[in-house]
Design a protein that fits this description.
With 103 residues, this protein is α+β, with helices and mostly antiparallel strands. The chain is built from 4 helices and 3 strands; from the N terminus they run αβαββαα. It has a 3-stranded mixed sheet with strand order 1-2-3. α2 links the parallel β1 and β2. It is globular.
């Protein structure tokens, strides 16, 4: 399978596969180019809350970051959602700039 076969959907399935009592987890997704912020969000939402130690690396992906705790991961996802919401709001308020010219 290799890294090319790892997708956002695969990450979500992986996150759901851990037992609820999981306490330590290290994941490396470096250079998995099909992994995006969608997979990161799924991971943050689906990992068990019982985790006391989490370390995840995403270098060479759309995320291109390392997370040293579940809280760190969830904070990054929350910030990304906030930024996305602000961008959508801005785009909705300025449609004349973003709409292609009519012929």
């Amino acid at each position: 399978l290799g890294c090319r076969g790892i997708t956002d959907t695969g990450i979500e399935h992986l996150a759901l596969s851990f037992p609820p009592q999981t306490q330590k987890l290290t994941l490396h997704f470096d250079n998995c180019t099909s992994v995006t912020s969608i997979g990161l969000r799924a991971l943050a939402e689906k990992l068990p809350n019982s985790l006391q130690y989490f370390h995840g690396t995403f270098g060479g992906t759309e995320i291109n970051d390392t997370f040293h705790s579940l809280s760190d991961l969830r904070h990054a996802v929350s910030a990304d959602q906030s930024l996305s919401a602000r961008l959508r709001k801005w785009m909705a308020s300025t449609p004349q700039i973003l709409q292609p010219a009519r012929r």
